[in-house]
Design a protein that fits this description.
227 residues, mainly alpha, Ferritin, 2 domains, three-stranded antiparallel sheet, 8% strand
Length: 227
């Protein structure tokens, strides 16, 4: 028996129906109930609209090897370091009031410019173009910081920026630790050295941020009592 699907339509009560016809009869099948009695399963491929068939197919992955994953993650941190050097750190330096914090940011800006050069050198060691990959994690941290600034008194701006700096440093530390493990596994010892240099400075920057944050938080807590 040959069964042809003539139409895929939506019934007035919201249920999807397939109109089918064989050589002897025509009938409608209720897709919600999956009533397919008397119809060969070979003749009806699926109870879904054909327009969705290609959309559900999984695209071929772009990253298929450890080396490709490494270069992708390397592009991710390159994006972060470039953004920090060109936009984020200069903006924080202009915002903050605490002199020790400002000096620390200025120092880390100089370090970050070297971080960019180190990551670009790792790409060169791999024989790859230094291509930045947009980092959604970093952009999320940036958006969170910008929103917090809009909602917070300017008197608390140093505390807000210290929190943002600490979160960013933690993000970078996690990224560099993952990258140096992958570089080590790939036998890229020179790349490991360069990544370790960046990682060491990020950890030191985090320690400085946490120290300043403790002092600023304590000073801020005393202000209402002395007012």
């Amino acid at each position: 028996m040959r069964v042809d699907v003539l139409n895929d339509f939506e019934h007035e009560d919201g249920e999807r129906l397939l109109e089918i016809r064989d050589d002897e009869r025509a009938q409608s099948l209720d897709l919600g109930a999956h009533d397919v009695s008397g119809v060969s399963p070979l003749d009806i491929r699926a109870f879904t609209p054909t327009s969705h068939s290609t959309a559900t197919r999984r695209e071929m992955p772009e990253i298929t090897t450890p080396r490709e994953l490494f270069t992708h993650e390397l592009g991710d941190i390159l994006y972060v370091e470039r953004k920090l050097a060109s936009e984020t750190l200069p903006k924080l330096i202009a915002e903050v009031r605490d002199e020790e914090f400002k000096a620390g940011l200025e120092k880390h800006l100089r370090e970050t410019k070297q971080h960019v050069a180190n990551v670009e050198q790792v790409f060169s060691l791999l024989g790859e173009e230094a291509k930045a990959e947009k980092c959604l994690g970093f952009e999320g941290l940036k958006d969170e910081h910008d929103k917090m600034l809009e909602e917070t008194s300017t008197a608390l701006i140093d505390m807000v920026d210290l929190g943002a700096a600490a979160r960013t440093e933690n993000y970078e530390i996690a990224a560099y630790e993952g990258l140096r493990r992958m570089a080590k596994a790939l036998g890229e010892e020179k790349a490991v050295e360069l990544l370790d240099d960046n990682l060491k400075q990020e950890k030191e920057a985090l320690r400085e941020v946490e120290k300043i944050a403790t002092r600023v938080s304590n000073d801020s807590a005393k202000e209402p009592a002395s007012a």
